[in-house]
Amino acid sequence: MKSSIVYITSEDNGVIKTTKQLEKRKYRQKTKKYIIEGIRIIKDAIENKKSIEYIIFCEELYKSKDADEILEILLHKGIKVYQVPTPLFIKLSDTQTPQGILGILSMEEYEIEKIFKKSNGLFLVLDRIQDPGNLGTMIRTADAAGVDAVFLSKGCVDLYNLKTIRSTMGSIFHMPIIHMEETINILEILKGQKIHIITTSLDTSYYYDEIDYTKNVAIIIGNEGNGVEKEVIDCSDFVVKIPMIGCAESLNASVASSIVMYEAVRQRRNQKILKI
Fold first, then answer.
1. Are 64 and 39 contacting, i.e. CB atoms less than 8 angstroms apart?
2. Cα–Cα dist 184/13, whole Å
């Protein structure tokens, strides 16, 4: 059923107040809703059939070449569309140069059992990652590398932080991303599915490219400053490191995860591996 555009001019309006509240993690968790902002990610949400609660746009700022087409699709789907003046949209926006459109989406819930279907699944477990840009980049890379699901431990930065969402470049919509409690609880579930645990750490004699990634494997990436906790290392099947030839002491967490994930991609393409 096609809807129509509703004009809002007051920041005391209930829709505006609710949207502002969603800037807070606690309120997002309570309502199971979150904000996305920008033309590209709105299009991604539409194309991936995500549950859009409503859209807010500002005609003056919304200058996409296919702006009218996007709005027409949203209205045709019966999604509520609100138009606001520029000053009001700027108060809602999280960017310095707003594109004039944002949306409110419902969070997705995934059944863990349904993601363990393949005999050679590839999973990424993120242990207390704190930087939104790192988290978003890891999810984007995992999407590109064909990872089947990403698990986030309790200590990770909020997935629905707008900076995290922007860094995913739409990959947040392409695969299951599952929040759990402690990393060790995630590993227990993975081991129950006969998934090999490969953890990154500098304190090991194995290099990342000496291990078999062609079977069911989960790659564990630890906190930027402290790495992976000892109990996680003790629970791992292999602990691997990336060679550090120069003077740098460590790599950025998202860079390290990319190197290891793409070793899995290389092996799965070439089948040149050392057996577990």
1. yes
2. 45
